[in-house]
Specification:
Blueprint (H helix, E strand, L loop, with lengths): L8 H8 L3 H9 L6 E3 L2 E3 L2 H13 L17 E4 L3 H12 L4 E4 L3 H9 L5 E4 L2 E2 L4 E2 L1 H7 L5 E16 L21 E2 L4 H12 L13 E2 L2 H9 L5 E5 H4 L5 E16 L6 H10 L2 H8 L12 E4 L1
Parallel strand pairs: 3-4, 3-5, 9-10
Antiparallel strand pairs: 1-2, 5-12, 6-7, 8-11, 8-12, 8-13
Helix pairs in contact: 1-2, 4-10
Length: 304
Amino acid sequence: MNPKNELSVQDVADILKVSKSKIYSMIKNEELQSYRVGRKVRFSENDIKNYIQNSKKGSCAHEQETGSSLQKDDFVLCGQDIMLDILSNYMRQRGVSALRAYIGSYDSLIALYRKQVNVAFAHLWDSDTDTYNVAYVRRLLPGIPAVIVHLTCRMQGFYIAKGNPKEISDWNDFSRDDITMVNREKGAGSRVLLDENLRLSGISSKDVAGYNHEIQSHLTVASIVASGKADVAIGTEKIAKQVEGIEFIPIKKEQYDLVFRREDADQYGVQTLLNIIQAQSFQEEFSQIGGYDTKNMGKIIAEL
């Protein structure tokens, strides 16, 4: 195996957005495959891909099953931003059994439609209206009254190598013979943004080198670009600031919103969530972190 493809416990914790202790617990419970090099625990990229794929098919974080209906006392938040991990911790402190499901935006809305999660988080761009999320909620939750509440705005853009040696500047560069990308998984908001812009630019995915190389993490795709294994990837500005060796080209300011069924609006879990994100202290916590625009956090975007 190429040593560059070996992942440490910290690498996997960053990818899955959990603590190192959680990773060791997953190894002990045989939820996650690993191997040892001397005393050090290591993972292959396939180990992580298999875990993520199995999670999408069956189990979510904290043993919530995406293929089954919600358990009575569970309250599942479905999305991939680290803000949701912190939000779920706040909810547990207030007596809500808040669980996490690390699933992309498109599949999150489908899980909400199937009553497999309580709240879905999404950043899906609709090219026809140049708006986020509302059009997708209408399509993916047909006949279901829903509420969309704004969480934050983030900047999406290109991860490129330091100094931009390939002089990448726009979507048309993705079809160049000397450019290789690394992609996000189907259903991720970043993937939808890419696919829509390739379509609008008249570029076939068959003409984009690396298009089928799919990864389920902003951090990992940024790291792949930093290592020189790809020339470009799509992701958020916040992650770009955490990875050495890359630069960020801003492309689109996106909305990251939460969605729940209107029939659940009076649920204790939903009310607790809304109270937390509407609190000034929570908003100030993220406004100081950087990479998050909390100006309209907690504002109702639409009631469908």
